[in-house]
User: What shape does this take?
Amino acid sequence: MNEPLLKVRPATISSTEFFARARTRLDFEVPPGLVDPHIIPRTGDSGNDRMLEIVAQEQPVRPAAVLIPVVDHPEPTVLLTQRSPNLSSHAGQISFPGGKIDATDASPLDAALREACEEVGLKREFIDPVGYLDLYGTAFGFRILPTVAKVKPGFTLEINEAEVVDAFEVPLAFLMNPENHQIHVKEFRGIDRHYYAMPFAERYIWGATAGILRVLYERIYLS
Assistant: This one.
């Protein structure tokens, strides 16, 4: 199954409108489900929701934060990374800058900014945080809180090869076009659950990264 869930025409809002909608619709209120295993981040997919319920009963909650860096070019892009093949989880996958929230982090936002600097050298002075997107749960017990941010062009990246092997930009228009949102099925303990994939050239964007991008599309373009 590789068809978009909603057969709608591609959205064509401007960069200005994108950030205006994001600032209106997002905020910095931390959802209690980030740390409470009894609050399941609902996905709208019964298989995924059941999987998250099972995971919450069997594994400790692992709070995490990622940055969705939307680079403010005339045609905006999203900065993504490719994780090192040597990592213990999600090795080699396409991801956002981010990671687990440390006890020393003042907030999920602070964790996302710290991780972006540590992984790819994206400095805070280039980042204008906009707000938190919806909480996203994974099969590994992670509760991911994404921060949407407007990033000023002109930054220089310094790749930390212990964590990521590459960083690259994908046009926001491509990622926010539902015609590029493939849906696939994977089994979890006899339960069919659906996940998104957004292949871009030689890059295979899928799993949590594609799922979070789909949530961004639904919050900003469909609401």
Residues 76 and 172 are 6 Å apart (CA to CA). The radius of gyration is 17 Å. Confidence is low (pLDDT under 50) at residues 1-9. Strands lie at 62-71, 77-83, 94-95, 98-100, 127-132, 136-137, 142-151, 164-171, 182-188, 191-197.
